[in-house]
Design brief:
Rossmann fold; 7-stranded parallel β-sheet
Length: 359
């Protein structure tokens, strides 16, 4: 079966994140299982185990990728059309089956990237136009939170399938937790991750508990956040880390801290869980699917103006409660075993076959 995946970015893009990691793994696993897979995306790209075709840049790809599909990949059995704010609107130019894969609905995120008028237009296209154009299309949401968001904008629940991203759950030797308390933030440094909120909470918490905060990740806010962090004792900005460094940090950490305003799915939460590390997070869509509150971590809730204090208080409580933190770490590791890649790919194949049969 010939499958063509349409996505915004390849892993070679400096802004690549969890969505690109997920699709790369799905494409590799489907290829191993005998599918003929192609990735169509904007530049830059790099050579992969599967076929990669670059078409356009950040915005021009929304015209050039459909053109490439109808000229070079007309005979594809199925197109997987990834919605990253905007999908590629495959029902308008393709008569054969397609699946719309959605990480999360962007909603208020538009206003953090574009002027008010442009953001309103983008939000309208995503929340009103997209559901109409894809009204007869099967959606794959990567979390129950995303499925709920799709229903809220008018997608028929009967058309939604939930497939959580997989993780590698086999760890031969768990790293030892650091003697000095180590708290880790691991994310792209972009507005919706709210790292400034995290730093303000740590400034309060660090007055009451020992240890250090490591902020790992890169992005457009790195310089500003580094300046802010330089004024807070025991805070380290380390930039982008390798996979080996990431695993070591996640394993040694006493807890992972997430302040994201929304996620499609908390991949780094589950990666931490495989290493016996619980998560302390602001309650948010996607994150609440990955963290079982009170069991594998703690979700902090509260009014916007009180979130910094609420997070700092919860941080102190969990840091000082060794027994609870260790129980949560053990429970997190046990739960992470449910999310292996084999199960994820099995579910994808099931939906692919379902859609292909119904055409």
């Amino acid at each position: 079966m010939k499958l063509v995946f349409l996505t915004w970015r390849d892993l070679a893009n400096p802004s690549a994140g969890g969505a690109e990691v997920m699709f790369d793994r799905i494409l590799r696993e489907l290829r191993v299982r005998g599918y003929d897979v192609t990735l169509l995306c904007g530049r830059p790209v790099a050579e992969r185990e599967y076929r990669v075709v670059a078409a356009g840049g950040t915005y021009s790809q929304y015209l050039l990728i459909p053109f490439a599909c109808v000229t070079r990949f007309r005979q594809a059995d199925l197109v997987i059309d990834s919605e990253n704010g905007f999908p590629f609107f495959s029902p308008l130019w393709r008569r054969r089956p397609s699946i719309c894969a959605v990480h999360h609905i962007h909603a208020d995120q538009w206003q953090t990237r574009f002027p008010k008028t442009v953001a309103a237009i983008c939000r309208t296209i995503e929340t009103r136009l997209m559901p109409k154009i894809y009204r007869n299309t099967t959606f794959v949401a990567i979390s129950q939170s995303t499925a709920v968001s799709l229903e809220e904008i008018g997608v028929n629940p009967a058309h939604i399938r939930v497939i959580e991203p997989g993780i590698d759950v086999t760890i031969d030797c768990l790293p030892t937790k650091s003697v000095e308390p180590l708290y880790l933030s691991l994310s792209r440094l972009v507005p919706q991750k709210r790292i400034s909120l995290l730093l303000r909470a740590w400034e309060l918490a660090s007055e009451r508990i020992p240890g250090r905060l490591v902020v790992a990740g890169d992005g457009p806010e790195f310089a500003n956040l580094s300046e802010m962090a330089s004024k807070i004792p025991r805070t380290q900005m380390v930039g982008r880390v390798t996979e080996e460094e990431k695993t070591q940090l996640l394993g040694e950490s006493w807890m992972l801290i997430s302040t994201s305003s929304h996620e499609g799915w908390g991949i780094n939460v589950l990666e931490a869980a495989t290493l016996g590390t619980p998560t302390l997070a602001i309650d948010a869509s996607g994150i609440r699917d990955a963290v079982e509150d009170g069991v594998t971590g703690v979700l902090v809730r509260g009014e916007a103006g009180h979130l910094v204090t609420a997070l700092a208080n919860a941080w102190v409580d969990l840091a000082l409660d060794n027994e609870t933190r260790q129980k949560m770490g053990n429970a997190a590791r046990q739960r992470s075993a449910q999310f292996g890649w084999r199960s994820t790919i099995d579910k994808w194949i099931s939906v692919i076959e379902e859609v292909s049969r119904s055409s």
